[in-house]
Amino acid sequence: MRRLLNFLYDGAAALAALCMVALLCAVLLSIVSRQLSFHVPGIDAYAGYLMAAAGFLALAHTLKRGEHIRVTLVLSALKGRAHQALELFALALGTLLAVLFAYYSVRLAWQSHAFNDISTSSDATPLWLPQLSMGVGAMVMAIAFVDELVLQLLGRRAGATPGEALRNE
Description:
The protein is mainly alpha-helical and 169 residues long. The chain contains seven helices and no strands. Helix 5 (80-114) packs antiparallel against helix 6. It is elongated, with a radius of gyration of 19 Å. One of its GO terms (biological process) is C4-dicarboxylate transport.
């Protein structure tokens, strides 16, 4: 099961990386098209869609690597059971919020599909297509939060301490 979950997180991160490369290409195409006086319809909108997709698809991978912003001032002052209780509370609350976010993100994409909602820009893209990446990213993040919560309950959660965060706190 661990290998499957890690594959899911890494796969979402790889898709996020592909979206970032595609975003770079879209921005470069937009710049070149302006310099050469031709227009690519909707390229700015697609760049925005790719930027959002990259951000949402990378959420779970970032969480599992301990790279999300955390305020550890109170947490670091606590020891023993109080530390564990606060950690468990934070993970439970994070899990609840991630599940709600995933539910409403998927619901938004589904409603956009059901109502045939399209972009107001010149490309007229069906909005459920770019919203799908938000829903998928939110679902993978919710799975990652449930994973972290279960690991904490079982006492197997490794405390992620990224070096960058330690230097910035």
